[in-house]
């Protein structure tokens, strides 16, 4: 009989076939295993990502909901005058930034299914509670707890992918579930349009119904995730013992595994001290300003073109559908060609052009077309994240790299809300020029990363027996390390990936010992 301890424990490890029996040249088996992973992982990632993002940006839709009937609008009810709306957005990111990195560590401790379930359920609950906010101060409290509830989700999902997919497979998968952001924005506009007609029903304003109806599905889905989201290949009931062994071995020696340490101070310090950590974190901050600007201010930008009420909400839908197609196409092509930098830079230039048009052109038709373009920021972000996950090895380094990067990048949530004050309407020149400059600076940083790290999609590894310290500076590890199983630390400038097979379970233990020797060097 199941106990409370069993309920809150991680999923049990199941039987795994002998890794020496696994034939990695079996393409049919590889396709079958990856297909099963996609079927059992991606639907949950898509729906949880959609619901979380929908709840996060619901305030943006609430701002313009029933704006053709001012007395029923949230701006009037909660007196969101001046910078108050921007502050309400920004306060979400204070606990979100502070708790993002600890969230990744806690996910390793509790397991992905338990941690992601906790996040999705609590986000839905807090969103529903936001409907009861009757004053500006209560709205700030709700937004603060919403940020605390959601912290750790984005980086946790990124890290969870690393336990299942090779680096060259990640951008496409990220695109599939992150495209639910575009769906969330599109669906949010449609849902807000429909909910606007509930204004006054049961004595509740339209914006209150918006928070209730967008939060409720999150609580239900969160409870299902607890039981149905798979944690690791070793715990997947829908894989046979041989398929579990294949899923583990196909990842190679550099991928994080469920057996890695949950905490290692030496790895934490080495990862944070690496200049590459700050290069990616700062660049992601620049790009996240564009993501936040689009997510929170698109309804406002469209409203400034003269479209109010449900018409304005409906006009937010087509740009997001267009963005979905662009994002998925760019990421799938990036995976297919196993190249990152060119895809990142091309997408950044494309989105920057949209902000340039918004800053310069007053014609509403041209401006609306530019909204389609700025909706595509994730076309650059997702190959960028996949690029980052291939520059670190092991669970601890991956947790620190992704968690730290996302935490720093979401400081953009404290800056982006103040880039589009109402007094700058309808051109919003300050915000558009600022984000255009951020994206162009991001292009320059991508060129630098391309020069230093290369643009291939695989793990950064050197040939046998070497550890790369910097471009052109390589140090010998030593003949005592096994030449077939010794993983190297990220290599600067390498354009080739050395795939190391893990032949037995003992090799996993030997790999961890080798990693410690490499770290000491």
TrEMBL record:
<feature type="region of interest" description="Disordered">
    <location>
        <begin position="476"/>
        <end position="495"/>
    </location>
</feature>
<keyword id="KW-0813">Transport</keyword>
<feature type="transmembrane region" description="Helical">
    <location>
        <begin position="276"/>
        <end position="298"/>
    </location>
</feature>
<keyword id="KW-0812">Transmembrane</keyword>
<feature type="domain" description="Major facilitator superfamily (MFS) profile">
    <location>
        <begin position="41"/>
        <end position="457"/>
    </location>
</feature>
<dbReference type="GO" id="GO:0016020">
    <property type="term" value="C:membrane"/>
</dbReference>
<dbReference type="InterPro" id="IPR011701">
    <property type="entry name" value="MFS"/>
</dbReference>
<feature type="transmembrane region" description="Helical">
    <location>
        <begin position="175"/>
        <end position="197"/>
    </location>
</feature>
<keyword id="KW-0472">Membrane</keyword>
<feature type="transmembrane region" description="Helical">
    <location>
        <begin position="209"/>
        <end position="229"/>
    </location>
</feature>
<feature type="transmembrane region" description="Helical">
    <location>
        <begin position="310"/>
        <end position="332"/>
    </location>
</feature>
<dbReference type="Pfam" id="PF07690">
    <property type="entry name" value="MFS_1"/>
</dbReference>
<feature type="transmembrane region" description="Helical">
    <location>
        <begin position="85"/>
        <end position="103"/>
    </location>
</feature>
<dbReference type="GO" id="GO:0022857">
    <property type="term" value="F:transmembrane transporter activity"/>
</dbReference>
<dbReference type="InterPro" id="IPR020846">
    <property type="entry name" value="MFS_dom"/>
</dbReference>
<feature type="transmembrane region" description="Helical">
    <location>
        <begin position="368"/>
        <end position="386"/>
    </location>
</feature>
<feature type="transmembrane region" description="Helical">
    <location>
        <begin position="115"/>
        <end position="134"/>
    </location>
</feature>
<feature type="transmembrane region" description="Helical">
    <location>
        <begin position="140"/>
        <end position="163"/>
    </location>
</feature>
<protein>
    <submittedName>
        <fullName>Major facilitator superfamily transporter</fullName>
    </submittedName>
</protein>
<feature type="transmembrane region" description="Helical">
    <location>
        <begin position="398"/>
        <end position="420"/>
    </location>
</feature>
<feature type="transmembrane region" description="Helical">
    <location>
        <begin position="432"/>
        <end position="450"/>
    </location>
</feature>
<feature type="transmembrane region" description="Helical">
    <location>
        <begin position="344"/>
        <end position="362"/>
    </location>
</feature>
<keyword id="KW-1133">Transmembrane helix</keyword>
<dbReference type="InterPro" id="IPR036259">
    <property type="entry name" value="MFS_trans_sf"/>
</dbReference>
């Amino acid at each position: 009989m199941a106990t409370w301890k069993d309920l809150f424990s991680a999923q049990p490890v199941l039987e795994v076939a002998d890794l020496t029996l696994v034939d990695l040249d079996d393409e049919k088996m590889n396709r079958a295993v990856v297909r099963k992973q996609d079927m059992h992982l991606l639907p949950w990632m898509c729906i949880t990502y959609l619901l979380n993002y929908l709840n996060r940006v619901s305030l943006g839709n609430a701002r313009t909901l029933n704006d053709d009937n001012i007395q029923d609008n949230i701006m009037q009810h909660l007196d969101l005058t001046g910078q108050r709306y921007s502050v309400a957005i920004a306060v979400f990111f204070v606990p979100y930034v502070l708790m993002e990195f600890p969230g990744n560590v806690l996910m390793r401790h509790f397991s992905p299914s338990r941690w992601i379930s906790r996040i999705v359920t609590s986000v839905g609950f807090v969103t529903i509670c936001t409907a009861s906010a009757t004053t500006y101060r209560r709205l700030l409290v709700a937004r603060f707890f919403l940020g605390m509830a959601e912290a750790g989700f984005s980086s946790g999902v990124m890290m969870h992918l690393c336990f299942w997919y090779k680096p060259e497979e990640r951008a496409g998968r990220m695109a599939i579930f992150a495209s639910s952001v575009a769906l969330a924005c599109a669906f949010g506009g449609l849902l807000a349009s429909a909910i606007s007609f509930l204004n006054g029903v049961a004595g509740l304003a339209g914006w209150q119904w918006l928070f209730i109806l967008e939060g409720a599905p999150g609580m239900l889905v969160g409870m299902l995730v607890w039981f149905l989201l798979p944690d690791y290949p070793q715990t997947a009931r829908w894989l046979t013992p041989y398929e579990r062994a294949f899923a583990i071995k196909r990842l190679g020696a550099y991928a994080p595994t469920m057996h890695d340490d949950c905490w290692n101070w030496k790895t934490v310090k080495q990862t944070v001290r690496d200049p590459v950590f700050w290069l990616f974190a700062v660049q992601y901050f620049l790009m996240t300003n564009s993501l936040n600007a689009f997510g929170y201010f698109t309804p406002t930008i469209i409203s400034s073109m003269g479209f109010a009420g449900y018409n304005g909400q409906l006009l937010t839908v087509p740009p997001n559908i267009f963005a979905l197609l662009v994002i998925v196409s760019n990421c799938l092509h990036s995976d297919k060609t196993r190249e990152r930098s060119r895809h990142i830079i091309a997408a950044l230039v494309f989105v920057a052009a949209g902000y340039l048009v918004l800053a310069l052109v007053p014609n509403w038709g041209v401006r609306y077309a530019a909204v389609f373009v700025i909706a595509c920021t994730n076309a650059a972000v997702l190959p960028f994240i996949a690029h980052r996950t291939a520059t670190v090895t092991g669970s601890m380094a991956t947790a620190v790299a992704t968690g730290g990067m996302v935490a720093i990048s979401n400081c953009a949530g404290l800056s982006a809300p103040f880039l589009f004050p109402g007094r700058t309407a309808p051109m919003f020149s300050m915000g558009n020029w600022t984000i255009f400059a951020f994206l162009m600076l991001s292009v320059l940083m991508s060129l630098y990363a391309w020069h230093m790290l290369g643009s291939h999609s695989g793990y950064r590894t050197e040939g046998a027996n070497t550890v790369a310290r910097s471009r052109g500076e390589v140090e010998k590890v030593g003949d005592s390390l096994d030449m077939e199983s010794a993983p190297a630390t990220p290599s600067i400038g390498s354009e080739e990936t050395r795939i190391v097979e893990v032949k037995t379970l003992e090799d996993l233990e030997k790999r961890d010992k080798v990693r410690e020797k490499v770290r000491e060097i």
